């Protein structure tokens, strides 16, 4: 093994993996532009990457139809006791899981190159950042990690001889016999896919999938599942949250972090263009926030990612113009359709649908075809730095001070447009009971109510009851310097099934009210569920919305909220004796206020 690595732990881990997986070659990534170009050239020659004539330095990939999304049922949190993993995670004991996976890993990289990818989650050298090393046999993973994380030889310099890192082992699980032709998208069958996390060891093992978060191990695996467990031990927070900066006409900056389940407009809000004059919104991150208490006692956040891994279908100039402008060049597209003019296309894109395209499976497609041209979970991987509204301070090593935290979900009724928590502990109750009606993007029947506490249900790397307690502990540490907490619902409908609120850029009006609340310049009235805007305190200037619709949008029916109680009881009962006493207290006070 002729690889120049000074870190002893890393050197021995690379040797150990090479002996186990038996690759034909080993390559240490340096994160350079030349390396990216070389990887792409190899992928083009192999017929895997399709260059897009209409978008400079952009490429289309098609995955195997069996490998198109995160595989939640094959995702494991492996801790010494099942209670530590908790009721929201799939658990297998570490010894048993490691034995199964070691058998799969044995010889799994035959005929392939083993890539060693040193990366930083967060700006390299930031006190909030963490270093990971991903070993993978997929060049598709290498190019995506170049965009999504900070891959660099500087990471190895920072590690030195004895620095610590999070080992992330990945294989597509498709060894090649001598002379065997590779497939366009190598992967293992579903029963052999494992996405395994060992939080007590800060260790990630992934096998059998080459797609998205199953293979780009810096993303959900490290930045949420492992990081959430590290954050609890070390006294910080790893959250499934966008981060944005809102600047008032007077030049005052507010930093907001928000957690929504899928299909609730997270990326749209992160890149929003305010409809109210003089207000400016800038994107810091669209998916994950790492937050630590700074020297001044406030909560500071960084976006640990370096790119956007966004869902393409439904993204358009009408829903998210800034995302569309981000996708003009230097982008990897996966499972989108290919037009005859050499561009990508997906359902919900601007303009007329193409008369003919090649669909995500590589087959001819026309508007008469029964199936969609792009897969519903088709993705784009794009550098965050080229977003037109990226904040100039988005890579500040110390992070940015958070003023406001927002939770939300998709509810056609019951929940008003916006309300404020009475205090931090009440805000934790709002986060812990957050719920959304399922859409095609979620598992389960469309329209069912699904509790997704803090939008972290699939991503919390330990017992969620303890996670709730960690939020209370952080609130105690922050004291009077804690961010204010709000809850939003952009999706309430009228009796005849129409959306009451226009959403998108007009959501800035709701954020403006929040900023005015923390400045003491906007009124609110107390209700059983929280503080709602005084009539007239939401800026509706220039908005064509009737008084009746606004009234319905902000209405709170105690009977409807009482009907929520059994579902919250059932939800909380799953956490048994791990449910914090403070949460029980918040729940009983909520019931009392509804009487």
Walkthrough of the structure:
Helix 11 packs across helix 17. Strands 1, 4, 5, 6, 7, 8, 9 and 10 form an eight-stranded mixed sheet that branches. The protein is α+β, with helices and mostly antiparallel strands. It contains 17 helices and 31 strands. The protein starts with 7 loop residues before the first helix and ends with a helix. About 30% of the residues lie in helices and about 20% in strands.
Task: Summarize this structure briefly.
With 595 residues, the chain is α+β, with helices and mostly antiparallel strands. The protein is 28% helix and 21% strand. The strands form seven sheets. Strands 1, 4, 5, 6, 7, 8, 9 and 10 form an eight-stranded mixed sheet that branches. It has a six-stranded mixed sheet with strand order 14-12-13-25-29-26, with helices on both faces. It has a five-stranded mixed sheet with strand order 2-3-18-23-17.
CATH architecture level-2 label of the largest domain: Alpha-Beta Complex
**Strand coverage percent:** 15-25%
Helix content: 25-40%
What is the 3D shape? globular
**What is the distance, rounded to the nearest whole angstrom, between the alpha carbons of the first and last residues?**
71 Å
Reported by name, the CATH topology of the largest domain is Phosphoenolpyruvate Carboxykinase, domain 3
Count the E strands. Answer: 31
Summing up helix and strand content along with how strands pair, one would put the structural category as alpha+beta
Number of domains: 3
